[in-house]
Every structure is written in structure tokens, then in C-alpha cells.
Amino acid sequence: MNEMKHDTPTAEPIYESLKEAILSGQLAPGEPLRQDEIARQHGVSKIPVREALLRLEVDGFVLFRKNKGATVREISPAEVLDLMDIRVALECRALELAVPQMAKSDLDRARAILREYSEDASLAEWSSLNVRFHQALYEPCGNASLLQMIADLRARLGPFVRLLVTETSGFERPVQEHQDILDACAAGDAAKAIRLLRDHIETTRKETAALMRRRRML
Q1: Taking the CA atoms of the chain, what radius of gyration do you get in angstroms?
Q2: What are phi and psi of 65, to 5 degrees?
Q3: Could you list the residue range(s) of the whole structural domain that residue 183 is in?
Q4: I want to staple 73 with a disulfide (CB 3.0 to 4.6 A). Which of 29, 63, 69, 153 is the partner?
Q5: What is the CATH number of the domain that holds 159?
């Protein structure tokens, strides 16, 4: 732990750069992270590179293996389902706090995002719109720590898994369920909105598990 507290200043930008590359999918799961190459790219010695990689390992983004060095950590199918379980708890709590605080502008923003669904048939766009819609619902909760936990969980899943979940869900079901959740929010019925959100996420989890079984990922 002390090593983490005394990182050299040059380790921070390397840490942020590698983390962003992992979260964006630029660095794929299982991809090797060669310290000499990273050091050359950043114009530094291997010392701050190793410090950055150790931080990323602590944060769950990097895995060190004996005789293989560091690689981008791969998320297992079982972990995907575990994280989706955690998602239920965090997001339902965020929505519970958010509904009483929602202004007309919050609802209008969520409705505008839903309208965008019908304007673009791209799977990647659906995935992005899904994230934006859920963010719009939770932001009025006023709990920055809770919102950060939700964002961190989404980041742990990574772009590949988010696309897999979007593919699993399809188009019509999530759009209708999003509309129903939003209608409950607009009516100020937090209990109904939470119930619908819980069903929405749990259904997606079941369908994701079924797809992974069909692809022999589980």
C-alpha cells in the first residue's frame, strides 16, 4: 500500500492513458502490456510504467502473471453476471433517490434520448444510448459517490461486454421497458419505477447468461 502512496509524478499520466485505452477497448482483454514499449512511448524509464501497471492491477484492469508480465485483465463470464447482480442494487438505489428530485428538464432529456433510439439502427449507438438514458435517470439522485460506483461498474464490464448485452437485449424490449420506467418516474411513482428497473436489469442478465451458454462461454 505504501508503494501506491508514493508514485512518481510521471506515473499518473501513464496510469490515466492506459486506463482510458483499456476502457475504450483500444487495448483488448488479454493484450500484453510491454513495459519497455510503454516507457518508450511516454519517454520515461520503466519505473513509472511499473508503478502505473501496479495501480492498474490493484484497480482490477491489469493482471501480472509469472514469466508473462502484465496483460489487460479479461473479465470472466461468471464475473459479468456477478457485476450485473451488483448493478441491480446500485441502480435501483440511485433511482429511488432520483425520482423525488426529478425536474421537467430531467424527464425531457430522458425522453429525447429515447427518441434517438428510432433514428439509428447501429448496435454501438444503441449501447451508447442505453448508457446515456440510465445516466439521465440517476443523475438527479445527488449522490456523487453512488453515481461514481455505477460508472466504475460499467467501466469494469468494458465495451465488448456492453455490446454483448445490447445484442442480447435487442431493440424493442429495452425501448418499451425504458419508456415504462420513464412514465413511472414522470408520475412520481418511485416504487413502480424501481420495480420496473429491477425487472429490466434482471431480464437482461438472464438473457445474457443464456446467450453466453449458447456460445459456450459459461
Answers
A1: 20
A2: -125, 145
A3: 77-214
A4: 63
A5: 1.20.120.530
6, pLDDT greater than 70: no
Within 10 angstroms of residue 162's Cβ, the number of other Cβ atoms is 18
What's residue 51's pLDDT? 94
The last residue of a domain, from among 28, 44, 72: 72
Instruction: Please check whether residues 103 and 201 belong to one and the same domain.
Output: yes
The model's pTM is 0.71
Length of the chain, in residues? 218
Choose the weakest-confidence range: 6-15, 35-44, 108-117.
6-15
Amino acid identity of residue 35, one-letter, is Q
Could you give the residue ranges of the DSSP H alpha helices within 6-103?
11-24, 35-42, 46-58, 77-98
Number of helical H runs and strand E runs in the chain: 10, 3
Q: Which residues contact 192 (CB under 8 A, 6 or more apart)?
A: 184
Question: Residue 5: its pLDDT value, please?
Answer: 43
**In the predicted model, is pLDDT for residue 145 greater than 80?**
yes
